[in-house]
Design a protein that fits this description.
The protein is mainly α. Helices cover 82% and strands 0% of the residues.
Length: 44
C-alpha cells in the first residue's frame, strides 16, 4: 500500500481517525434525532 514507513504510519493513523469519527458521529446524530423527534412530538 505505502512504500515509506512514515507514509504507512500516517495511513494507519488516518484510518483509525476515520473509524473513531464515524463512531462518534453515529452516536451524536442518533441523540440529535432522538431529541428532535421528542421535541416535535413524533413519539406518540
Amino acid at each position: 500500500m505505502c512504500k515509506l514507513s512514515a507514509t504507512s504510519v500516517t495511513a494507519i493513523t488516518v484510518a483509525f481517525l476515520v473509524m473513531n469519527l464515524q463512531k462518534w458521529l453515529k452516536g451524536h446524530f442518533y441523540a440529535l434525532f432522538f431529541v428532535w423527534k421528542r421535541l416535535l412530538g413524533f413519539d406518540r
